[in-house]
Amino acid sequence: MGVLQMKVPSPGESISEVEIAAWLVNEGDYVQKDQAIAEVDSDKATLELPAEDSGIIEFKAEEGDVVKVGQVVCTIDTSAEKPKDIPEVKKVEHSEPEPDNSEKAATQTKQTYATGVPSPAAAKLMKENEIKSNQIIGSGKDGRITKSDVLNALSSDSILVEAEGRKTSREKMSMLRRKIAQRLVAVKNETAMLTTFNEVDMKPIMDLRKKYKEAFADKYGVGLGFMSFFTKAVTESLKLFPAVNAQIDGKEMILHEYADIGIAVSSPKGLMVPVIRNAEAMALHEIEADVKRLAVKARDGKITPDEMTGGTFTITNGGVFGSMLSTPIINPPQSAILGMHNIIERPVAINGKVEIRPIMFVALSYDHRVIDGKESVGFLVNVKELLENPDNMLFESKDPSSVFPNL
Known about the structure:
This protein has 407 residues and is of the alpha+beta class.
């Protein structure tokens, strides 16, 4: 028993410092073991810092401070007695998204009790400057107001001009957002990026899902969504066009015999790309289960840096936001990225007749230093053909009655 010094743990390989994004408790509070006491930002992810023991907490770092991995950020007096009115810490159970919309669920910002509530340091600063919570938009987890939000508002005079109807505000960019910005600029400056487009008739997949979705869910316990079909089509096409799955390393080109597919999702803290390992060896239901698992972790801020590194190819779905067409930016050091978009009913020519079909535009951005036009176009055409003939991906050349015998 005594005073426990809590040090910043390493969030992942190559990360040497983090930023204290928000304290989730007040200084002097009695905290319990495993209770989340702070959020820390690295350049790859936002993680919660759990209390290592129970006791009275004392801060050694302020919100917004950049601290080294291994640095003491707070102490816990473990000899303090637990107040009688403090309930036991309960594990928070997160609801899961609907299987068919797991990637969309990961993009939704949660509205919780923390929305619009200032952190302890922010509350103190707001009281000193007579600022109300409704005058500041929180940038912390679930909309929590951080000390940086208050300082930015004060420095930009946004509160003073509110009555004039021309309110402005400044928000400090998190380490994650700053890293994303640097990487995006680097891609534009350091790669020969081009984009090729095509369109996919989604009717075959939609008909197949409608016919087998209940049997699929009953057998495998997961929904049959679009993302598994796209992932499978990509991994099969990468086998035919390995350069699309390659990357440049100095004067050499690294070719991968496996496909680690990144699924880009938007989270409250910014864009994240969790990776499905060895997707080329997975069946559709295995891909669906992994997509669902990673989407929930990204949505709840539980994703780890290791789960977002090492991808060889990325898929991004702007369609969940209503995007018709875009040119996705390559996720370095990868050489290509596939962009999905929304599905719109369009008139198309089928066997000499005009029919209305659900069409999705797809886009492949690629690094022309690694991938030639013939390979990029061939890859995207093969993805299109697989998606428009999805039976083999679902049944893997087996008799449908042997896969779903109850139908």
